[in-house]
Amino acid sequence: MSNDATLAFTVSDMTCGHCAKTITNAVLASYPSAKIDIDLASKRVSIANAGDRAAVASVIEAEGYSPADA
């Protein structure tokens, strides 16, 4: 499922550029047309053109991170 809504998560255990890249790659693997914006300083991940919130959160969780609604 794809939509135009932007999903926002706070990922408190995202601590470095490697973490950001891992999350980006995982989301793009499931949602190739997703637009991802990561602000490492605020630990915020914004994703447009992806699935529903629960499905995207599951993708991030599968990489070992803990996304929370932002």
UniProtKB/TrEMBL annotation:
PROSITE patterns the record matches: HMA_1
Highest rank taxon of the organism: Bacteria
Pfam family name, one: HMA
Keywords associated with the record: Metal-binding
Domain HMA: 9-65
A GO MF term: metal ion binding
Name this polypeptide is given: HMA domain-containing protein
